[in-house]
Every structure is written in structure tokens, then in C-alpha cells.
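Case study.
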Amino acid sequence: MKQARPLTISGGMLVSPAGLVEGAVRIVDGRIAAVQSEPQDGDDVLDAKGQLVAPGLVDLGVFAIDKPAFHFGGITRAALMPDQSPPLDLPSRVNYIAKSGKPDLWVHPLAAATRGLAGCELAEIGLMKEAGARGVATGRKWIADSGVMLRLLHYAAMLDLVVVTHAEDAALVGEASATAGEMATRLGLPSAPAEAEALAIARDIALAELSGARVHFRQVTTRAALDLVRAAKGRGAAITAGVTPAHFMLSDLATAEFRTFARLSPPLRSEDDRQAVIEAIGDGTIDVIASGHDPRGPEDKRLPFADAEPGMAGAETLLAMTLGLVRDGVIDTARAFDLLAGNPARLLGVEAGALIEGYEADLCLVDPDKPWIVDSAQMAATAGNTPFDRQPTQGRATRVIKGGVVL
Amino acid sequence: MPPDRFPAGRRAFPHRDLLGISRLERHEILYLLAEAEQWVEFNHRSKKRSKALRGLTIINAFFENSTRTLLSFEIAGKRLGADVVNMHAAQSSVKKGETLIDTAITLNAMRADAIVIRHGSSGAVELIASKVDCPVLNAGDGQHEHPTQGLLDALALRHALAERGEASEDFTGLVVTICGDILHSRVARSNILCLTALGATVRLCAPPALMPAGVEAMGAAVFDNFDAALDGTDVAMMLRLQTERMNGQFIPSAREYHHLYGLTKHRLDRCAPQALVMHPGPMNRGVEIDSDVADMLDRSIITQQVEMGVAIRMAALDVLTRRARGVAGWNDGEWL
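After joint prediction, the assembly is written out as follows.
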């Protein structure tokens, strides 16, 4: 599927790096040829009818390639976590994954940092980079051995690959499935203190500063850890932080009655931590909002809470939940798409995620006010494990354009 | 129906299942306790066979090993005249996962009239209850709840207080200290909920590693010094400490635990005069409780707890099967 004729999208509000501007975008040969241009003779013309013309979402850190869900959510690129079966710890696997979504979805594999994601021996990161890896990830777990982590960061710094890490102190977490506090105590769930996150982040910030590596904390969900990230960024450390909508929309109250769709990793936190995440999105401490898309069927979720697998199907709700922050005045629309597309694209080093001339023409048309109700039984994803079931929300991608082709 | 004080226009016990004390209102707890009284008396007879549940099938599905609770439920069902079947899932190769739901569906297909479940994971009994059509009784789920234990402890306490002439409907003004592995204890959780609902003041005592975070929010005061926790208390309820937690993981050793948290005669003197001693069993004599305390006839009500367990379980099985048996007055209204 290649773009046959030039396409001009007119009549929309362009979400450009400078903010919202009325105008048109002209796309030629799959790339953005001109921003704020007029259609030329022979162009196909798409009337945006006043909707947002936004960059396609770049979803940093998904666990499954789920095209219908990504398409629904306006996601044109997804960085796949190495936690696959088998894990992405060999160049051949990375190479296969890098081609797997084309042409209508680009998948950027994140190479496993260690063999088998066991946290012990470095995987062939250099060869995996050449095979198409756009970053390195520790997987669902933290690398507990600080020596291994430092060597990994030195190596990744040499290769200029971002290291995506999961930040929970492994020994403190153990088998916990909840955050220590009233809710976990009432439910009798094995729990770990929220400080497990700050501990892990404190170490990894120190190692990042020591090694000069770019470290991206995929999810930062507690006030204490966000304070550490804020301070380190103030010193100029090359670190970035992400979060998923679950941690700014929900607290651990959502786990009441053992709802396994709210069993996440890291687990849902206290209301105070939820507020801290919203503040951190507002003040720029958080750089990326991602879906963490991890569709799980009943065999993984219809279990006692602690026995269920963590994770949520998040691709379809990512955009709407983030636009909720715009409606609440936490961020503006341009910043929302920095969090959803611009920043993750920069971290992965791909020319996409923003309306900039020469960039890949990955766009979506968004009706930011379109109301809809999340329904776990009617989702495009391969499983409907959303903690937002039955929640009324607003904002929908109405068209997705990948490489100049309207999907 | 025996008399009880539940709010006018409300049903005495509108629940299909008994999943946890947390779901019960105070008047519902009092109703179950009142219903149990007839069975306490009944169990003193020489012929202990009622026909109340004749023809009904009760399945005791125990996914975790148990001796006393299983026996207590089995005796309760049999004395009510029901056909009781025990399923020892812990001994078969039942795995977790879909199998748990499949097991629930299987039990349901056998048309049991009530299912009693014990499972090692918190919330597992609620999950099964959502898949079956008959009343489900929680006989202990993970570290969550053990509601019949909470109720039987309240009944035993009520009888002990009545015997010494302090009969009262609830426990207003009474101070109860629960000591031991609160973190891993479903007995503690059900007792905190039940005792506070009935007006008692609850103190919890454990080394910090065995005290769950945020438990104060359940309405209990938290102590790590046993002597301070016992000061003036009316009831000392000791919890069992699992052997595997005594050897350096949570506490350094059994003897150190006994030194700091063992209930000795000397420590009992710190409590209110005539304070009562309770333990859900099985006891580690010489660890959390000394034998000479456990065996004090005038103070220890540990065997009465076991006795009341049968009566409470009879009451629960009776009340929960009334709709299925077509007992007058129990056939309308939605389940909660």
C-alpha cells in the first residue's frame, strides 16, 4: 500500500508543534510535504470538517500487536516490549517483528536487555539494533543486579539506544499484587509498599547519570518517585518518564471486589499518588503517556486477584483518557500530542509523531468531543480487559492515515 | 422466625451467600447470632438430628487443607439432616486458573443446595459464588475473610459474658486485643469487622513485619508492644503463627516470639480482672500461648469457640437455604 497521488487534508485544526492552527497539510509520497498549504491540481482532498488533524499516536511500550485496537485508537506506531514468547532477545526475532505490522502499522521492537529477560547476561543489543530495534527494555521486571544494570547502561549509551526500564524494587515487591494500604489490607492481598518504585528509580537515576545512558522509566506512578525524577531532570540527567492512563484515572479503590481488570503492574496506587501523577503531567515531569496495551483473556483474568495476570487492554482508551486531561485544564491539546506522539517518537529516534515537513505522514483525524462509552464486551482489541468498562468518555480518532494512505 | 431487632420493613438476612463480615450489617450479624442460639441448645441433646435440611445436598469444597473447619461444617450439615459431601481439592491435582471456574461450573451442575468453600487465594470464593446458582459459604479465602470464625468467636464471647452475669446484646465497652500474625490472618480481618460492628474496641498487636499497612482504617488501634496492648483488656485473642514464618523470615525465632508476644500467666495479669482468653486453633503451645493459660478453665474459652462453631454453621446453613426450602417469608425480594 503506497500513496498513489498527493493528498491534501483541509478544513481542520492542525495540531502543530507551535499549537493549534487552522489550515491544510499536503502529503506527497508518504511524507509531509507542506504544513499550512493549499491543495494543488490533481491532489486528492480530504475534508477534516473542523476536526483536529493530529500526528498518529506513537505508543511506547505495548505487549501485543493488536491492529484493530491500534487503528481504533489512532495509533500508527507501536514500540513492542520484548516480553513475547519467545522473548525478543535475538536479532532474528527482532528483525521479524520490525517488519510484522507493515504497511499500515509500524512496529518498533524494543530489544530485550538481557538473555531471556532474566536480568543476568546482556543480550546481543548491537546486533538487535541493526536488525531494527529502536530501544532496549528490561521487560516487565526490574534488573535487580546493579552491576548488570550499569554494564547495560554503558553499552546502551555507546549504541545511543534508549533503555526502557520497569521501576519496582524486586525484593520489596516479591509476589505482591497490590500497593500496601487500606485497600490491600481489607482485601487481604499480598502487597508491597509504594516506596518500592522510588527505591528502584533512585538507583537507576544514579546509574543513568554515571553511565550517560538515556533511561526512560516506562511508568512512574508514585509521588516519591516523581519527585526524584523531577529533581534529576533539574540536574540535566538524560532521563524521561512515562505513565499509562490507569494511573492518572484510577486509584487502588478500583480493585474493590477483586476486579482483576484493575490488576496492573505496577499496581494501582493511593489517591494521593494519582494526584501526583496528574501534577507531574501538568508540570512536564512526565514526558510520555502510553497504553501499555496488554490484552488478556479470561484464562488470565477470570481468576482470584493475586493469581490473575497483570495488564490492561489500553490502546482504544489512550487518546480519550488523555484528552480528558485537556478538558480538565491540566494540559493543552498540543502538549497532549507531544505526550502521545512527539516525545515517544523522539525517544525512539523516528521521524514521525509531529506535523513537520519531511516527516512520515502518519496522521489521525480526531473529534475531541465525540462522546462514547467504553464497553469491555464490544472492544476492537483481542480481549476486553479494560478497567474503564462502562465509563462515559469523549474523544475519538475518526480517520487514521499511515504513510499518506487513508486507512 | 425468632424475634430480633432488624429495621422495620427490612428483611432479616437478604444475602444469598455468606462471603464475608464486610458485607453484613450489624443487625444481620445479630440475627445470625440469635439464630445460632437454638442450635447451641440443640447440640446439648443426646439425639442431635434435625430434619430441617432433609433431602438437601451440601458440598464442602476445600481447596486448602483443613481439619477442624471441614469437620465443623460436615457435622453442622449432618445434624441438620442434609446429605454432606466433602471434596478435598487440595489433595487432587486441581490447578489454579480456568480449572477453578470449571470446578465451580461442575459443582453447580451437580445441583448442590449449598456449597462451602475454602481456598488459598483472597477473593476466590466470591469468584466461585458468581458462577453458581446456590448459596455459597466462605470457609476462608486467602488472607481475606473467614466469616463463620468471626461469628463463632462473637457467639462464644457472648456466652462467656452471659455466664458471668454480664449478658448483653452486643460488646459495647468491651476491649479485645488480637495478637499475632495479623498480616496473613483472615481470622483477624473477620474478627476486626465483626467485633467493631458489635461495639467492641479492638486492639491489634504484632511485630511490624506481621502488621498490615493501613489496618487502622478498619477501626482498630495498633500496638507492637504486647504488654501495652494487654493493659486493661477484657479479652486476649491469640492467633496462630505459622511455623514457616518463625525462622528468620518474619521473626527471628519461635523462642524470641514467645518472649515478646507469648501469652503467659504473668502477662494475663496485665489484663482486666477475669479477662478471657481465645484462640481460633490449632495452637502452638509454648509459642503464642502457654499451656497453663490455654487450659485455665475459668478464663480460656478456646473449647467453647469450637463448640459454637458447629452452632454458627448450622445457623448459616439453615438461614441461607430457607429460600430454596420454601420457608414462609423468605421467598420475596432480591438477593443482595
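Observations recorded in class. The mean pLDDT of chain A is 96. Chain A touches chain B at residues 180-191, 193, 257-258, 298-299, 302-307 (CB under 8 Å). We will return to this complex in the next lecture.
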